[in-house]
Amino acid sequence: MINKTLFLTYVYLFIYILLSSGVILYNKWVLSPKYFNFPLPITLTMIHMAFSGAVAFLLVRVFKVVSPVKMTFEIYATCVVPISAFFASSLWFGNTAYLHISVAFIQMLKALMPVATFIMAILCGIDKARCDVFLNMLLVSVGVVISSYGEIHFNTVGTVYQVTGILAEALRLVLTQVLLQKKGLTLNPITSLYYIAPCSFVFLFVPWYLLEKPVMEVSQIQFNFWIFFSNAICALALNFSIFLVIGRTGAVTIRVAGVLKDWILIALSTVIFPESTITGLNIIGYAIALCGVVMYNYIKVKDVRASQLPIESIPDRMTKDWKFEKKSSDIYVPANTDDYDGSSGGNGSASDMKIDEETPLVSSSRLSHIGRTQLTNQYATGK
């Protein structure tokens, strides 16, 4: 008889993969001119941000499910504002890419995320250049180039939008680690939404006013309340499913689930959207890139786990206990988990992050942490 805890873990993983794939396909269907025909990605993202912020406000201020963190104006201006700006940018560019390129090709391009995050981390001085990691990044890049070359409906504009969104997301993740850790803040998915979603909404308002508001005034754009409400609900459910999964599984499991989800999503997109034809060269290129990503994940997981090995060589038990207490007091340890890939501003390397860009919910401060420091908050983006 299967263990109840193990069964629940599999259920949560299944729900996560289902919702993550569903939000991407739903967003593509809503935005695509061939289907629902709501070609206004900034508007759709603003709807997500408004809904997410409202739900977070109710959970924090009304129902008091979680408590707000100590947030001063200086912290908000120097941390939350720049992080929200890059978050809004990543959602904007990522969702806009759906208008020009297929879901399958977008997922293949997302293999560049570890490369972008690693480069940004080095530029910001929070990671060091390493030969083994560099070779993995090179392998990923070569695979993405091959996959792009094999794309039948290659679109330069869509590719530029998606790559720009990836760079913005990578910079946001690095800034989240640098800025929030410097201030000693830890944000869970709900508090992340509470602080970042409203600010991201404000940043999105400017390009919306300049680019999409005039279009809405002269075009016959259909607006179905239930379509957009259900779309926002799915995105919110995805964010909470991530919260459940990271509390029950380890970093390796999360990463494997992410890879499985990508393959499922590519296969489903070719069935649901017939124009999303993939070629053998697409698959070969993506497989090469995926090998690089898997090898990179293995290196990072091994490195961080090695750094968490107990110090058995110290014979003095009191000295050992003191060192453990000091170490534990310096880091944020979430409840219910030893291996964590989730939303918080704890310690860890920005280049360790496994991003789920699908959720417009916070994906926001999904820093990766392993072991006691955590190995995540995404799109959302429904990107």
Automatic annotation (TrEMBL):
Q: Which Pfam families match?
A: TPT
One GO CC term on file? membrane
**Residues spanning the membrane:** 7-26, 38-63, 75-93, 99-126, 133-154, 192-211, 223-245, 279-299
InterPro entries recorded:
Sugar_P_trans_dom, TPT_transporter
Cite the Sugar phosphate transporter domain residue spans from the record.
11-297
Q: Tell me the segments the record calls region Disordered.
A: 335-355
Q: Specify the protein's topology with respect to the membrane.
A: Multi-pass membrane protein
Q: Which UniProt keywords apply?
A: Membrane, Transmembrane, Transmembrane helix
Question: Which compartments does it reside in?
Answer: Membrane
Read off the PANTHER family from this record.
SOLUTE CARRIER FAMILY 35
* Protein name in the entry: Sugar phosphate transporter domain-containing protein
